[in-house]
Write a structure and sequence with these properties.
The protein is of the alpha/beta class. It is built from 24 helices and 14 strands. The radius of gyration is 24 Å and the shape is globular. The structure holds NADPH dihydro-nicotinamide-adenine-dinucleotide phosphate, pyruvic acid and magnesium ion. Its cofactor is Mn(2+); Mg(2+).
Length: about 550
C-alpha cells in the first residue's frame, strides 16, 4: 500500500498475473528491474527447461481429467508457457483441452472449479450486462465465444457448467490460429437449466430455474449483443452449443446485423464438406456424384446439408437437384414430405419418398454413398448399417461426427472392420490408429476446430463486418487442398493437427480475400495479404521486460 492506502504495483504482481508471468524464466535483469529477487528460486530456467518440467508433471497424471485440470491451472498461472506447450505438443494435448476430455470437464465443472475464466452473464443481472462487460480487464477484445450451455457437445444441457466449451474453443483460437489470448473472451449466459441433476447439485452455481424461453430469452441475448457493441465494437461473436430451438433463430437474426456466426451450423458444415472434397480427391469422384444420408437433422446436420447444396450448385446443379442429394433422419425417422409439423430447418429436405422409421431401412431404401452422424446417438451406425454401406459402395463415406467419443455413431474400428477396410472414415473426436487385416488406419478428426480458428483470424485481420457462407465454402476447399498423399495413405481426409497453424493461416487468407471481394473488409487491402495475416499471429514466446 502507498501512504494513501492505494495498492501499488509490486513485483509479486508480475508473478501472479498469468499474462505477464514467466516464473523461473524471469532473467537476472528483470528480477532487478521488477523487484523479484527472493520471490523466486534463485536459479533461472529457460523456457525449454520449463516445458520439460511441465511435460514431466503432465505425463505423471493418471487421468485425462487430471491432465485437463493441470493444464487449466498452467493457463491460469503462466499463459505464455501454456501456449508454448500446446504449440509443441498439440496432437497429444488436443484430446485433453478439447473433445473428448473437455466434455467430461464440463460435466464435472462445478466439482473441479478453481478459478473463473471469462465472463458469466446472468439473467438475474438483466439491465446490467454492459456494466458487467466493463468489469472484464482487457479492453481490446476481438472475438467472443458465447454459449447458453443448452447443447454441450452431445451431452445435453449443462447450464453454466458449459463454460468449459467457450474457454476451450478460445484456447484453440490461440493455439491453432495465433489469435492473441488477450483478444479472446469466453462468455456463458445463464438463463437457467433444465438439467435436474444440476438443479439439485449443492455445488451448482448457476440459476436453478428451468430455462427462460421466448421473448424474455430473446431480450437477454439482445441486451448482451448491444452490450458487446457498446464495449467491444467490431468484435466477432461465435455462437456455440446453443440448443436448436434458439440457434437457427439467433443466427438468422444476427448474421447480417453484426459480425457473427454459429460454429455448430456453419463451422461444422465447412469441416464436413472439406472431408467430402478430400474424399473425392482420394476416389476421383465429384461432389455431385454423392448421395448423403444424415443421422440427425439439427444444427450440424442441416448446416452441412446447406453447404453441400451450395457446393453442388457451384458444380452446376440446380438447388432442387442438390437438395435431392441430401437426406435426413431425425429422432422420428426419415424426414419426408408426408410428415407433419417438421421444424423449419428440415423443410427443404422433406422429399417425396416413403417414410422409414429406422435408419437401416432408410439406408437400404436410399443406397447413399455417404452417411453422416450428427445425432449425439452413440453406436447408431450398427454392423448392419455399415455392412449395407459396404455392399453398395466401393468406398463408403462414414462420418461419425458426434462428440464426445462416447456419443460417436461408431468407432473407427467398427467403421473399418464392418466395411472390410473400405470405409473412408472421419470422427468428431479422435480415435487411436486401427489395424485391420494387416493395414494401419489413422483416421482424421472431422471437427470444426479445423475451421473456426482460420475463419476468426481472417475476419479479425481485415476487420470484416460480417461472416458469410462463401467464407465457409472457401475454408472447406482450402482445408481439403491441404490434405497430402501421405494423409490419404493413412486413411485420413484431414491434414495432421500439427500443421493446423499453417492451415488456419491459409484459410484466413481465403476468408479475408472474400471479405475484400464482398466489400466487407473495413481496413485497406494490404499489398501482401498472406504476410499481413501471418504478421498478426501470436507466438508464445516470453517478452523481455528489463
Ligand atoms: N464434429 C463436429 O465438429 C461437430 C459435431 N457436432 C455433434 O453433433 C451432434 C448434434 O449436434 P447438433 O446438430 O448441434 O444438435 P441438434 O440438437 O441440433 O440436433 C440433433 C439431431 O439429432 C437427432 N436425433 C436425436 N436422437 C436421434 C435418434 N435416436 N436417431 C436419429 N436422430 C436423432 C435430433 O432429432 P429431432 O430433430 O427429432 O430432435 C436432431 O435432429 C452433437 O453430438 C455434437 O457434438 C456438432 C457440431 C460440430
Ligand atoms: C465440436 C463441436 O462444436 C460440438 O461438438 O458441438
Ligand atoms: Mg459446438
Amino acid at each position: 500500500m502507498s501512504e494513501n492506502n492505494i495498492p501499488v504495483a509490486q513485483g509479486i504482481n508480475w508473478i501472479y498475473d498469468p499474462a505477464l508471468n514467466k516464473g523461473t524464466a524471469f532473467t537476472e535483469e528483470e528480477r532487478d528491474a521488477l523487484g523479484l529477487h527472493g520471490l523466486l528460486p534463485p536459479g533461472i530456467n529457460t523456457m525449454s527447461e520449463q516445458v520439460l518440467r511441465v511435460m514431466g508433471n503432465y505425463r505423471r497424471k493418471r487421468s485425462d481429467l487430471e491432465r485437463y485440470i493441470f493444464l487449466t491451472a498452467l493457463q491460469d498461472r503462466n499463459q505464455t508457457l501454456f501456449y508454448r506447450v500446446l504449440a509443441d505438443y498439440l496432437e497429444e494435448m488436443m484430446p485433453v483441452i478439447y473433445t473428448p476430455t473437455v466434455g467430461l470437464a464440463c460435466q464435472e465443472y462445478v466439482h473441479i472449479f478453481r478459478r473463473p475464466k471469462g465472463v458469466f452473464v446472468s439473467a438475474k443481472n438483466k439491465g446490467r450486462f454492459s456494466e458487467i462487460l466493463k468489469n472484464w480487464p482487457n479492453k481490446n477484445v476481438r472475438v467472443i465465444v458465447i454459449t447458453d450451455g443448452e447443447r454441450i457437445l452431445g451431452l445435453g444441457d449443462l447450464g453454466v457448467a458449459g463454460m468449459g466449451i467457450p474457454a476451450g474453443k478460445l484456447s484453440l483460437y490461440t493455439a491453432c490460429a495465433g489469435i492473441h489470448p488477450s483478444w479472446c473472451l469466453p462468455v456463458t449466459i445463464d438463463v437457467g437449466t433444465n438439467n435436474v441433476d444440476l438443479q439439485n447439485d449443492p455445488l451448482y452455481f448457476g440459476m436453478r430455474n428451468s430455462r427462460i424461453r421466448g421473448e424474455e430469452y430473446d431480450s437477454l441475448i439482445e441486451e448482451f449483443i448491444m452490450a458487446v457493441e457498446e464495449n467491444f465494437p467490431n468484435t466477432l461473436i461465435q455462437f456455440e452449443d446453443f440448443g436448436n430451438l434458439n440457434a437457427f433463430r439467433l443466427l438468422n437474426k444476427y448474421r447480417s446485423r453484426i459480425c457473427a456466426f454459429n460454429d455448430d451450423i456453419q463451422g461444422t458444415a465447412s469441416v464436413a464438406l472439406a472431408g467430402i472434397y478430400a474424399a473425392m480427391r482420394m476416389t476421383g469422384q465429384k461432389l455431385t456424384d454423392q448421395k448423403i444420408l444424415f443421422l440427425g437433422a439439427g444444427e450440424a446436420g442441416t448446416g452441412i446439408g446447406d453447404l453441400i447444396v451450395s457446393g453442388m450448385m457451384d458444380e452446376g446443379m440446380t438447388e432442387q437437384e442438390a437438395r435431392l442429394k441430401c437426406w435426413f433422419t431425425d429422432s422420428r425417422g426419415l424426414v419426408v414430405k408426408s410428415r407433419e409439423k417438421l421444424a423449419e430447418h428440415k423443410l427443404a429436405y422433406a422429399h417425396d419418398f416413403e417414410y422409414h422409421q429406422y435408419f437401416i431401412d432408410a439406408v437400404k431404401a436410399l443406397k447413399p454413398t455417404a452417411i453422416i452422424g450428427v445425432s449425439g446417438q452413440a453406436r447408431a451406425f450398427t454392423q448392419p448399417v455399415l455392412e449395407a454401406m459396404a455392399e453398395f459402395n466401393e468406398r463408403p463415406l462414414v462420418f461419425a461426427l458426434s462428440n464426445p467419443t462416447s456419443s460417436a455413431e461408431c468407432t473407427a474400428k467398427e467403421a473399418y472392420a464392418w466395411t472390410g477396410g473400405r470405409a473412408i472414415f472421419a470422427s468428431g473426436s479422435p480415435f487411436e490408429p486401427v489395424n485391420i487385416a494387416g493395414r494401419n488406419f489413422e483416421p482424421g478428426q472431422g471437427n470444426n476446430a479445423y475451421i473456426f480458428p482460420g475463419i476468426g483470424l481472417g475476419v479479425i485481420a481485415c476487420k470484416a463486418r460480417h461472416v458469410t457462407n462463401e467464407m465457409f465454402l472457401a475454408a472447406a476447399r482450402e482445408l481439403a487442398d491441404k490434405v497430402s498423399e501421405k494423409d490419404f495413405k493413412k486413411g485420413s481426409i484431414y491434414p495432421r493437427l500439427k500443421k493446423i497453424r499453417e492451415v488456419s493461416a491459409d484459410i484466413a487468407v481465403k476468408v479475408a480475400e472474400i471479405a475484400y471481394d464482398q466489400g466487407l473488409a473495413t481496413i485497406d487491402r494490404p499489398a501482401d495479404l498472406p504476410s499481413f495475416i501471418r504478421s498478426q499471429m501470436y507466438e508464445p514466446n516470453y517478452r523481455n521486460y528489463a
